[in-house]
Amino acid sequence: LSAGEVLKNLNKFYKRKEIQRLGAENGLDARLFHQAFISFRKYIMESGSVSADLHIILNDICCGAGKVCLLGHVDDLFPFFLRHAKQIFPMLDCMDDLRKISDLRLPPNWYPDARAIQRKIIFHAGPTNSGKTYHAIQRFLSAKSGIYCGPLKLLAHEIFQKSNDANVPCDLVTGEERVYANEDARQASHIACTIEMCSTNTPYEVAVIDEIQMIRDPARGWAWTRALLGLCAEEIHVCGEAAAIDLVTELMYTTGEEIEVRNYKRLTPLTVLDYALESLDNLRPGDCIVCFSKNDIYSISRQIEARGLECAVIYGSLPPGTKLEQAKKFNDPDDPCKILVATDAIGMGLNLCIKRIIFNSIVKPTINEKGEKEIDSITTSQALQIAGRAGRYGSSFKQGEVTTMHHDDLVQLKEILSESVRPVKAAGLHPTPEQIEMFAYHLPDATLSNLIDIFVSLSQVDGLYFVCNIDDFKFLADMIQHIPLNLRSRYVFCTAPLNRKEPFVCTTLLKFARQFSRNEPLTFDWLCRHTKWPLAAPKNIKELVHLEAVHDVFDLYLWLSYRFMDMFPDAVLVRDIQKKLDDIIQVGVCNITKLIRASQSTVAPGTAEIVSEDFPLSRTKRDTRVASGRHGAKSTEALSIAVDVMGERRAKNLKAYRSATRQEDLKSHGRGSLANRLLREGLLTQEMLRQLESEWHDQHRNGRYGLGSKRDDQNSSKETGKKKK
């Protein structure tokens, strides 16, 4: 057979509308049809031999081409194409069943117990510090039975304590912990839990769902959807931003339940100041500086303590116990610590006596869907959540204030706070273990990661819902794919709450899964050997970060111990050493400036000269990455700290620089070109742009780097030719 003739006829087959229609009827949408054809064409063109019947068909098509009486037609290839497609896409044989399983258009029907009763939905809507959650909790405490569902362990723990202090026996249920109010471990009538742990089978008189706006969260939104639709309670009290009212109303319309909305206003005034802090010399007791990176936290806390002031430090990866201790230290009127440096982790879960919130920056690093790092301004919802922590009702400060560290950020912050919060448009969904098991029944040879991909690609959702991001799940599924586990156990391991950017925690999960697959219990002694317990107090920032990772490993063990009790048998012993580790981390955080100084001493000689006066403090993360690549610093993090420390000495120059350029850059350039985007994100300045333009013109004029015009190139080549002659 002529390869050219075969290829021409295959391409003709691909373009025929009748073939595409037949493919669609057999479950091949445009994307699958294209992928199947590419594979089919490659199989025919690159195989040493094809089956006899396919060879005969190809021969008839090629020989009959162009003749009046055709021996064969390209349409005759379709049965062979479909057979090949089913080999690479096995779900085609059971597409109807798979589509039914992945039909997510009626989530209310998943919860028959909730649909069997008439529930009353009460939405407590209001901003931070408006008393909305307080009123819902009062109803929770007065009920015969109740459940509180919160987004954080800290919030669940707070309600657990409040309830028991009010002589209402209440159990605590989180992913890693079970605490019973009754000594005989009988279940109490009230439960405070993290939202993922709520039961949709147990009947309650009252249920409270906190921070309902998180129903739109790309990763965890499914848990709020499940609680809202599935909790079997006579009264459901929903607390959160007014932006979620319309969505909750529409969702309740699909269940046939009415919703009552109670609006609340902020209890204490919140003022946006007309001036920025400008210098850390202007700090006052009750101030909280909010940063969006750990490096900025390290830098600012170091500069504050260099002025003889004490500060508390709170950021997301700290253990809950350490966060509470730091909050207690800051709130204590008799403690000399009057300044707080924190990330947006203070946005919920901690009661803090803050007078003034100071945004160190209003841009926050985020990771987009492709896993790329982006820098974007904080949203109105985020800004209000953080700013609202100032002037808490019942604290020593009767009103709150908010401002920025730098004057040029203040204008933009005012604009962000003046905008209305974007309404919540859709609620998250996530495939259940039962749905994935049914998929696996039809596709026994598919990996868990592939099962999830196929499920998402076939899933149909109503306009009120979306399928949550499954990247973390797939990451873990791929990581442990080579380990022999049954599907249910594999699914549980893949839903473990861990940060995939922490290598030590990920490798520990891998070791857990490997030993689990061999049916060898993960003992306390094994865990101590793996983590090198006991551990000493940290001597530098790197050691502190490692201790935080070890704390996460203990959390992971406890989380798995409630799902596989026989394989993770030493939960009590692990919880004991986790408390000791919490104390060690607290010591490290209290001495954080000493750790920073110790880390600074590990920076390579000459690092200080790397820093240019052209780069403001808020850009140190990017500069650190570039500088460490060029100069070979031993520690990127240590280098960043050194950059921040030097940045303080240059504060006056930086203030002038920022005022003169950054605001002008942000205002005078729109979206579109690469230069405009770099200017907007603060990665390029007007002065740098002018310098680049000047260098470009010089190179263009001199014809360097092949940047001369075509005519210049021709003239140059002629001159070269003459010289050669």
TrEMBL record:
Q: Tell me which InterPro entries the record gives.
A: DEXQc_SUV3 (IPR055206), Helicase_C-like (IPR001650), P-loop_NTPase (IPR027417), RNA-DNA_Helicase (IPR050699), SUV3_C (IPR022192), Suv3_C_1 (IPR041082), Suv3_DEXQc (IPR044774), Suv3_N (IPR041453)
Annotated spans, Disordered = 699-725
Q: Which UniProt keywords apply?
A: ATP-binding, Helicase, Hydrolase, Mitochondrion, Nucleotide-binding, Transit peptide
List localization entries: Mitochondrion
Q: What is its main location?
A: mitochondrion
Q: Record's SUPFAM superfamilies?
A: P-loop containing nucleoside triphosphate hydrolases
Per UniProt, the ranges with Basic and acidic residues bias are 709-725
> What are the record's GO terms for cellular component?
mitochondrial degradosome
Q: Name one GO molecular function term.
A: hydrolase activity
GO-annotated biological processes: mitochondrial RNA 3'-end processing
Q: Which Gene3D superfamilies match?
A: 1.10.1740.140, 1.20.272.40, 1.20.58.1080, P-loop containing nucleotide triphosphate hydrolases
Matching entries from PROSITE patterns are given as: HELICASE_CTER
EC number, UniProt record? 3.6.4.13
Checking Pfam families in the record gives:
DEXQc_Suv3, Helicase_C, SUV3_C, Suv3_C_1, Suv3_N
Under catalytic activity, the entry for this protein gives:
ATP + H2O = ADP + phosphate + H(+)
Q: What class of enzyme is it?
A: hydrolase
**UniProt cofactor(s):** Mn(2+); Mg(2+)
The residues covered by the Helicase C-terminal domain are 272-437
CDD domains, alphabetically?
DEXQc_Suv3 (cd17913), SF2_C_suv3 (cd18805)
Q: Which family does it belong to?
A: Belongs to the helicase family.
State the protein's name: ATP-dependent RNA helicase SUPV3L1, mitochondrial
Natural source organism: Pygoscelis adeliae (Adelie penguin)
